[in-house]
Arsenate reductase ArsC
Amino acid sequence: MSHAYQRAPITLDQQYALTAAASRLAGEFDGTYGAETIERFLHTSYDQFAGRAVVANFLPLLAERFARQRLTALARVEGRHDDGRPTVLFLCVHNAGRSQMALGFFQHHAGDRAVAWSGGSEPGDQVNPMAVAAMAERGIDISAEYPKPWTDEVVRAADVVVTMGCGDACPVFPGKRYEDWALDDPAGQDLAAVRPIRDEIERRVLALLDRLEVVAGDS
């Protein structure tokens, strides 16, 4: 495997894991992207997390998941694959609270009828535990999610970009449909304070699904 794009330190076990990840992605994107593109996206995705990962053993998994999302987005942008489903990107500062709850509600209510991603202008180290707990009260598990940055291809692939407090740091592409949701930041708040933020996010997600003409339901 080429290491032209690999700048972060890497152990032998991580290299084995990345090699396996590249093989899986090559199978998934066979006929769409070649090995060089897949490896480049995988390794640049790895670099995004290497400097701030809490558990180094999870790095290859995070890189694979993020590379898969980015390649899917690129295929949509380039017209190589578009299944016609509405795609929404939720952005906040740390991608740890508001955007993660919005993603959870969107996926829960939209099921496979629409696609949603999330990102942050300054990704944190982990999803806010109070956001995880608040969503668990609604039967939605976001504990496996992780803060991640936004990338150009992901923004360009979205039909709607929903921003939440990232201000000028949020990406702006001409002609893209944007919505700005003014919501309190759950960072540093206790569960009681996060609940009303969670409920307002769900209300807005349901309204967005209605505007997108996506039938909401429990997935």
The first helix runs from residue 12 to 28.
